[in-house]
Amino acid sequence: MTLSDLCTHTTTTESTLLPPDHKLGSRLVCPEYSKSVQEVKSYPLPPKERIFALCWNIDGGHTLRATLCPSPEPFRYQLHFSSNEKTQLHTHDYIELAYVVEGEFRQRILGRDIIFTKGDLCLIDKNCLHQDYLSDQPAIILFLGIANDMFSEIMNENVATQKIISFLQSALLKQKDLQQYLHFRPGSDSGAVDELEHCLTLLLKELHDNEIGSHYICKGLLLRIFRIISAKYDFSLSKEQRKTMNWIVFEEISDYIKRHSATITIQELVREFHFQEDYFNRIIKNKTGLTYSAYVQQIRLEKAEHLLVSSDKSVEEITALVGYHNKGYFYKIFQERYGTTPSKYRKQG
């Protein structure tokens, strides 16, 4: 069964049809009732249930069918809506990942309209103000609600590439007053959507059946999903988000270079951070005014200066410790920077 078939099945054939005024209905989809009210949607399940799925199936005839998994009993809900209707402006106190299974999906996020097409994802941080447009065109949307502690665990597993980990951990989780979202699109890998949908299908089925051990299986599938998104999808950022991310990534790159300054190579940075070589030159130049090579040299010389005044190690030992094997070259660049030889610098200190 495909993801589209499974979403259709769960929203149209479950045994219990909730009445229109059922209190759970507004949890599944809440049409706009005020231009000024901002709802805060809290995590709807007990703490032990750390992932849930909300399926929307819009038939193109102003009818939205929805269901929530896991739930004690399978159910479906049906809402008739008007053209161009929106949901109430709201935030979550958890992380939401929305995936467009079929059709298009339009959201207004932080005052900006964004259209997501089939295969796109949107990761919305808690406290990020948004609302959903209820389209009169057929569409199937799968929302995953991820409890904050579960999301932290997923990121700590390092399944995502460093650029995503850096942004998500620092921008989405730590800066609590920043409202953030990420728009993911399939990259050049033609099999990415099929691979992702396979995992999403397994996850939705697992959440629907909710059997013993489901928690562990769902976490494993979520790990795979974030790995696929990270490795095979592209994400776009606003101008403000790019500035935030560039500082975050530069700080991580800089810290890594300082920790491994004696042996660091740009190829090692490529392997560690999953960026191309020219990216490191660009970001270091942008933040320091120096090329990659000049920046590494500056860090090595600063370390050598520190060792000269704080240790009894010989100049030869210090030369090797900071990453140079040619004593003459080390003397030359040290003198160019400090205006004196390492030995004289030590005496002056």
Unreliable stretches (pLDDT < 50, length at least 5) are: 171-177
Could you say what the CATH topology of the largest domain is called? Jelly Rolls
Q: What is the string of SSEs from the N terminus onward?
A: HEHEEEEEEEEEEEEHHEHHEHHHHHHH
Integer average pLDDT: 87
Shape: elongated
Write the layout of secondary structure elements.
Layout (H helix, E strand, L loop, with lengths): L2 H10 L3 E2 L7 H4 L10 E3 L9 E8 L4 E7 L5 E6 L4 E2 L3 E3 L2 E8 L1 E6 L2 E6 L3 E4 L5 E5 L4 E8 L1 H9 L5 H13 L6 E6 L5 H18 L4 H19 E4 L2 H21 L6 H8 L3 H12 L3 H19 L4 H7 L5 H12 L3 H7 L1
Parallel strand pairs: 1-5, 2-7
Antiparallel strand pairs: 3-4, 3-13, 4-5, 6-12, 8-11, 8-13, 9-10, 9-12, 11-14, 14-15
Helix pairs in contact: 1-5, 3-4, 4-7, 5-6, 7-9
Structural features, described:
The protein is of the alpha+beta class. The chain has two domains: about 5-235, Jelly Rolls; about 240-349, Arc Repressor Mutant, subunit A (Orthogonal Bundle). Helices cover about 45% and strands about 20% of the residues. It has helices spanning about 5-10, 25-30, 150-155, 160-175, 190-210, 215-230, 240-260, 265-275, 275-290, 290-310, 315-320, 325-340, 340-349, and strands at about 15, 40, 50-60, 65-70, 75-80, 85, 90, 95-100, 105-110, 110-115, 120-125, 130-135, 140-145, 180-185, 235. Strand 4 and strand 5 form a beta hairpin. Helix 3 runs antiparallel to helix 4 (about 160-175) and helix 7 (about 240-260) packs across helix 9 (about 275-290). Residues about 170-175 have low confidence and may be disordered.
